[in-house]
Amino acid sequence: MTRRLSKLFLIFSVLFILTGCWDYKDIQDIHYVTALGVDYEDGKYVVYVQLVDLSAVAKTEAKSSEPTKVYIGKHSGKSISEAINHLYQTAQQRLYLGQVSTFVLTDKAIEHNINDIVDAAFRFNLIRYSSNIFATKKPLDELFSIKGFFNLTPLYSELHFPKPIYENLSYIEPITLRTFISTYRDVSITTTLPTISWSGNDWTEDKKKRKTFTIDGAYVIYYKKSMNWYSVEDLKGSRWITKKTNRTPIEFTKANGTTYISLTHPHVKIKPIVKNNEAKFTLDVDIKGSILELSTNDSLKNLEKFVQDYIKKDIEQTFEIGLKRNGDPLGLGQKLYRKDLRFWKTNNINEPKDYLHANSFEQININVNLANAGTLEYHPFKNEKLPNN
Fold first, then answer.
1. pLDDT digits (tens, 9 = 90+) for 306-330
2. Which residue ranges does the record assign to the Spore germination protein N-terminal domain (predicted)?
3. Cα 293 from Cα 297, distance rounded (Å)
């Protein structure tokens, strides 16, 4: 009898210490915010949230024949916190910010007071620093309403997954909230904040025009001192000075035909040189590429020379545009700061115009190696004449 009671006591003791699921909630019991946007109108911050049914996202065995529903919340307040708290009150279930994958700021919000927005992002500790961050010139409610192809949720789009698009076509690199906050507060680093927009010209669905996301430019921000918007065309030179460029094309047409070349992973060296209390830079770029389309009979040597000049012109153009706007889109300031801190402090450098000038580049050296024609059966080129297509 005593042994039986001991066993029962042991069993009940174990039951008491077992982990339970008394506070378990199904995925449909919580409203998960997948994107959060901030606008500024009539002296108030306007916060937008995007809700997507995550239970629909989890169903991967078969695609739904019905479009996924997207809910958008909107409220204004004197502060971002006030606006979000109002949305908490009107949501029909608990709002959870821990699944926010994208943070979007309108141009009006950025130009009003980007510092308040950055501070608010710090305070909302539920928002993940791994979230994407974009600026936009478009209405946030329309931006958040664009869905993925094949009745998929907006989560399967460039708004939430920009990295694969960048790897396929590397112009302006997407950044995370962590990167934005860390670089924005650095005295020497230029932050490039991509702007996301949409296009209704390229795709149709059942013969109807369909909106799709696209990166149309970026805000180039320098330590709270300088902030201007640049188009993709303005920033063409930036892609040649980052090793993260996975694939970027150039196309040029001559009298005897068109050539299309894909270039990848440039190796870049930027060397600051201080002479007579003036900063200058030498830039070396080594890049490889493939010829994807060829309608000329130029020699490989001439073709590589043309690409070298093309890249150099891109870099010079982006630098000159930045110089006119008191910006540093090529990020030269960070290299100078790390190389010669004494020069930086002695000259009280606070913004790009304090260290950049028309003759900042002492040398720009570009080396291009076009290794193949983009096909498995084509052998590496030598300096022979290229065949006509």
1. 999 999 999 999 999 999 999 999 9
2. 23-196
3. 12
Token pair for residue 310? 């093309």
Has residue 151 got a pLDDT over 60? yes
d(CA 228, CA 351): 13
Q: What's the CA gap between 336 and 33, in Å, rounded?
A: 41
Tokens read off for 110: 């950025």
Distance CA 113, CA 107 (A): 10
Residues contacting residue 299 through CB under 8 Å, at least 6 positions apart = 383, 384, 385, 386
Total Cβ atoms within 10 A of residue 62: 6
Q: Cα dist. 322→274, 330, 351, 352 in Å? A: 21, 8, 12, 9
Q: Which of 50-54, 146-150, 352-356 has the highest mean pLDDT?
A: 352-356
Q: Which DSSP category does 99 fall into?
A: T
Alpha carbon distances (Å) from 66 to 34, 52, 83, 154, 201: 20, 14, 32, 14, 24
Cα separation values, 236 from 53, 71, 128, 259, 262, Å: 38, 37, 31, 18, 14
CA separation, residue 167 to residues 102, 160, 171, 185, 239 (Å): 18, 15, 9, 27, 12
End-to-end CA gap in the chain: 96
CA 74 to each of CA 41, 67, 282, 306: distance values in angstroms, whole numbers, following the listed order: 12, 22, 50, 52
pLDDT digits (tens, 9 = 90+) for 18-65: 555 555 555 566 888 999 999 999 999 999 999 987 665 655 445 556
Q: Fold for domain 237-389?
A: GMP Synthetase; Chain A, domain 3 (3.30.300)
- Chain region(s) in the chain for CATH 3.30.300.210: 237-389
The β-bridge relationship of strands 208-222 and 248-254 is unpaired
Burial class from Cβ neighbours inside 10 Å (0-12, 13-18, 19+) for residue 112 reads middle
